[in-house]
Write a structure and sequence with these properties.
This protein is α+β, with helices and mostly antiparallel strands. It has a single domain, classed as Roll (Ubiquitin-like (UB roll)). Helix content is about 15%, strand content about 25%. The longest helix has 11 residues.
Length: about 90
């Protein structure tokens, strides 16, 4: 099922400048795999070499952090939106 994936400005060059990508999948991990298939340059920005979510990237399924929904195993539906946001450190 198609899911909208919103990209932050810092990731857009790897997606041809797109602010949004439509990707297919039933879980966040499957959606990420489709995003990477469409835009291979995003792979290292989204996932570690082991295939886990980079800790410097926050991912929200609608308004909920996927860390509390099952991470990459979180289920998605076609009405959902994934929003990617770089983690920000402050001091």
């Amino acid at each position: 099922m198609p899911v909208d994936v919103r990209l932050p400005t810092v990731l857009r060059p790897a997606a041809g400048g797109a602010a949004k990508v439509v990707a297919e999948g039933e879980t966040v991990g499957e959606v990420f795999a489709d995003v990477v298939r469409q835009h291979p340059g995003l792979r290292d920005q989204l996932l570690t070499p082991e295939g886990t979510l980079h800790r410097h990237l926050n991912v929200f399924l609608n308004d909920d952090d996927i860390r509390y929904l099952g991470r990459l195993d979180a289920k998605v539906s076609e009405t959902d939106t994934l929003t990617l946001m770089p983690a920000v450190a402050g001091g």
